[in-house]
UniProtKB/TrEMBL annotation:
Its cofactor is pyridoxal 5'-phosphate. It comes from Stenomitos frigidus ULC18. This is cysteine synthase. It catalyses: O-acetyl-L-serine + hydrogen sulfide = L-cysteine + acetate. PANTHER family: CYSTATHIONINE BETA-SYNTHASE. Pathway: Amino-acid biosynthesis. The keyword Repressor does not apply.
Length: 324
């Protein structure tokens, strides 16, 4: 018998998928950790679970309590599913620039959702800071604080990293991923480096994020912008601090969109925009290090969360991103 106990029991142990068209093109094994197959549909189910379990273990989250979080959507979705399964309430603060699909889904799941204007982190009304303030003003509530709560990267250090190691029998040459909070990238990188120091850990970054320049120069500096959601950061979060990074690769939206459409049309994989950045960086790395290597990245979430944007030709045309 192989039966998972409820929503929570079904988190993790996702397949590692060979991205056939890109692997054949580059001569490298390009492997994607299929996080879109988590029960809440994204890589963030793992962090959401660890954050809630950590708060319970510390006695911070009590029966009938509320979990408050600022999120681009996926963490909120994971948290709300878990709160439902455990009898907690969930209050989500999300920038209004995020896809309507994620906002609608959060409401369907039962979260109290507050959409707010997207303003930079330094602004006191930034969605992350606002969520922290709301939590501190409520009775029996915790702030998940995914960006600086190390339970987030611990989830990936204890589960995603070891799964990748076992699934490849340790035959990994490189790990490449974009970061939002840094939890996935850092947790996996820290685990893999401990196992085998020669594994190259490469940060993928969209335009408009400061992390590429952080890895290259030590200073986060951002230029441009990206249509991708959930990744990129103007600051180095607690989850990113101390994460090994041998290199960084910046991928623009044109390339990310091309990747997502090739995955759909040639591999049958319907993926969100951050996957385009991840796979774009994996391909760039494959070209740099040459054939015969195994490169692992993350398939963070599925395309249905971005149907109205990334998969809408009018929207893509308006952004000047419609693929040929
Ligand atoms: N891709 C998507 C679609 C996401 O929602 C997120 C999380 N914000 C990430 C990638 C990055 O994950 P992490 O927060 O672990 O860096």
């Amino acid at each position: 018998m192989d039966i998972k106990s409820g929503f929570i029991g079904a988190i993790g142990n996702t397949p590692l998928i060979r991205l056939n068209s890109f692997s054949d093109e580059t001569g490298c094994e390009i492997l994607g950790k299929a996080e879109f197959l988590n029960p809440g549909g994204s890589v963030k189910d793992r962090a959401a679970l660890y954050i809630i379990q950590d708060a319970e273990a510390k006695g911070l989250l009590k029966p009938g309590g509320t979990v408050v979080e600022g999120t681009a959507g996926n963490t909120g979705i994971g948290l709300t599913h878990i709160c439902n399964a455990k009898g907690y309430k969930c209050l989500i603060v999300i920038p209004e620039t995020q896809s309507q699909e994620k906002i609608d889904l959060l409401r369907t799941l039962g979260a109290e959702v507050r959409t707010v204007p997207a303003v930079p982190y330094k602004d006191p009304n930034n969605y992350v800071k606002l969520s922290g303030r709301i939590a501190s003003e409520m009775e029996n509530a915790i702030w998940a604080n995914q960006f600086d709560n190390l339970a987030n990267r611990q989830a990936h250090y204890e589960t995603t990293g070891p799964e990748i190691w076992t699934q490849t029998d340790g035959n990994v040459d490189a790990w490449v991923a974009a970061t939002g909070t840094g939890g996935t990238y850092a947790g996996v990188a820290l685990f893999l480096k401990e196992k085998k120091a020669e594994i190259q850990c490469v940060l993928a970054d969209p335009m408009g994020s400061g992390l590429y320049s952080y890895v290259k120069t030590g200073e986060p500096k951002a230029e441009g912008s990206s249509i991708t959601e959930g990744i990129g950061n103007s600051r180095v979060t607690a989850n990113m601090q101390g994460a090994p990074a041998d290199d960084a690769i910046q991928i623009d939206d044109t390339e990310a969109v091309r990747m997502v459409y090739q995955l759909l049309e040639k591999d049958g994989l319907f993926m969100g925009g951050s996957v385009g950045i991840n796979v774009g960086a994996a391909i760039a790395l494959a070209k740099r290090i040459g054939p015969g290597h195994t490169i692992v990245t993350v398939l963070c979430d599925g395309g249905s969360r971005y149907q109205s944007k990334l998969f809408n030709s009018d929207w893509l045309t308006a952004k000047g991103l419609l693929p040929a």
